[in-house]
Amino acid sequence: MLKAAFIGAGSRSRRAHYPIVHRLKEDIEVAAVCEMNEEFMQAVVNEFGISRSYTDHQQMLREVEPDVVYCVMNEKWLLQPALDCLNAGTHLLVEKPVGKTLTEAQQIHDAAVANEVCCLVGHQRRYAAVTREAMRIVNASGAVSQVCATFNKHLLGDKAFESTSTLWNDACHIVDLVRYMSGGEPAKVTAYRDKFGSDHYNSYVALVRFDNDATGTIVANRASGGRILKAELHGVGVGCYLDLPDRISIAENDEMRTISAWEIDGDDPSDKSAYGGELQMHLDLVNCIENGGFPITDIRDVIKTVRLLNEIEAVEYRG
Fold it and tell me: The pTM is what?
């Protein structure tokens, strides 16, 4: 059984990561939690029966010696705890984005490589049932021709902005998804960023030509009217339209069919963690720690997404 520890007990970790790791209690024992907020820490200690709690993650690493740490926190605080875990030889899960800058992400990457440990980045949409099904269908048809993703929200005013930009903090979801589903690496990028109803950039459009001749389109807009997360993947004679994470519509030979996400693997319709990808992501990490190899969303691959993010963010009407 793996010995695990958490750094962070905020809303994201309490909503997603603690419950999923608790589901895997036959494979993982959560031995400790580190959190500066006493209320948050006590909440997870009580709910999940964690026996040891800390406010100093370095002390926790020394005393607990975990096999894996789930370091779930805002990117503005991530770098040092992540490096401390990796340099202690501990496998790691972090949320996205991986730090505030490409430089920070590269430091985390280099530490994972130097210490020969996994560093999974929480791009769970690679694991979503609809993503896997779309890639299976399209790749069977031959080459990927086009991949598109849209992530829009209605977030204006100060609440819309963290320490990093809309693209870095939020649209990283679809930048990673487009790059992953394309099956190639960026060869040429044309991109635009704009400010609508804001002093900050909150609208991004990018066209990416990949080295396998697939073309990707990325549209992210926090000044829109509501939350929309959709993607498309096209091949030869087939197109898949993803309403993430709930359903996929497949157009093939002029016929259309729609499949609910939970039908793909026979999941419970109420178990979004399973068909949405988060459970599969955690299982991938456990399997790699126990049997060797690296997760699908390990930093060794995700660093390429971060470089693409950095290129799009730096654009000033380049075409």
Answer: 0.95
